[in-house]
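Researcher: Sequence of Muconolactone Delta-isomerase follows. Predict its structure.
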Amino acid sequence: MLFHVHMTVNIPLDLDKDYVEGLKTKEKALSQELQRQGKWTHIWRIAGQYANISIFNVNSAGELHDILMSLPLYPFMQVEVTALCQHYSSVKNEEEAH
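Model: Prediction complete. Tokens:
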């Protein structure tokens, strides 16, 4: 299943800077591992914000939920999720038509 996920991170300014850097380091490592597994594709990083628009390719909505909840920065995120449908293009290859 494909999901379009828009994540905006709002870290309170009064949080300990070392704590925040540790969270960011863990977040980056986890996102890179999920990208290697083919589950998370960063589409855009939104300019001027700590936010991104991504595509998740997972087995179920439950798996996406578990992934999002495991993100170290999740407690500071505003998340918008849209389910996507995979479908064939309206312009088909000749070989596909047979």
